[in-house]
Description:
Elements: E1 21-28, H1 38-42, E2 48-50, E3 62-64, H2 75-79, E4 85-92
Antiparallel strand pairs: 1-4, 2-3
Amino acid sequence: MRPPPVERFWRVPFDAESIPRVLGSIHVLEERCKGCAYCVEFCARDVFVTSSRFNLKGYHPPEIVAPERCAACHFCEVLCPEFAIGITESIGAGVRHAS
C-alpha cells in the first residue's frame, strides 16, 4: 500500500481560499462487484481497500476507508468493469486547499 499523498506545494495560489473544493460521495454496489480491485489499485488518493468480507457472489468488494480524501475525479467509476461504483459531487463548504 502506498503512503497517503502529501498535499504540500512550494507555493499557494493567491485565490486558493476562495476556490471551493469539490468533494465526492462514493457509492459502491457491493452485490455487483466481482472483486477485480481496480479501484483499490488505481485510486490516486487511496480511498479504497479490499475488504475481508464476501458478497453474495463470493468476491471481496472494496471498502471505503477514507471518503474525505475523494477528489471526485470519477476514475474509479470509469475504471469499474461492472459499473458498481458511483460518485456524487458536492462543493465542500469551508474546506481549504492544503498549503
